[in-house]
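Catalogue entry: protein

Sequence with per-residue tokens
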Amino acid sequence: MKKAFDTNSEYHSSKAISASGLKKIASSSVFDYLNQINKETDAMRRGTAIHEAIYEPENFEKNYYKMPKVDGRTKEGKAEKLIHLDLAKNKIVFDEIEYNTILKIARNVREHELAKKYITGIIEQSHYFEYNDVQCRCRPDCFDSVEGWISDVKSIRNINGRSIPYEIKDRNYDVQAVAYSEWMNIPVENFRFIFCETNHPFKVEVVALSNEQIERGTKRFKDALNKWKFYLETGIIETIPANDYAEDGAKIF
């Protein structure tokens, strides 16, 4: 296994399959994975900022800029905005409301009695290795090899009784948890999702997969990996969409 604290661009330039790639294959097909168009959305940009505000708060202000509300219709407002844009050079700009929201989310995670345990460890380290004769890669948000856990922050609009299980199923987070755990030799029972509300009151829940979710995620992980391996060995691209899976619960701590 190769470990590195490389950049995002360096990590994503690797041809090794990632958990995100397997999630796409599990939910769709190898064809759709190979032909997907990767475009950063506002939600993805906000998610990255939340991760950084939580795990690396010392870098957050270096990389992001809070744009105050100005009246762009007036001469004074236009001039003020130009000043802020100049100050924001080489930074990602969020308006004042969204910037403050990100900070509130990060504060609630750091103050959450259980979540704060799972944000203290090795952060954003890339791992490259061979698994079942397939080149793979992963980059956990945070992990502790001594205590044997992995954590991953997920944004969610609202936390209620059904929203988290639905999110895990709909976004294939079960596949990700199994992939990371298998690749890094950590029990999947020790994988923790930290779900953060993006709406007031910005609740936080620490979640482990249920036995049913682990079983489903393991099956989907193996199926997706085998389809990818078959493509690498034969050049044949599987185009049949994956079957849908039943929804089940998750353990919330």
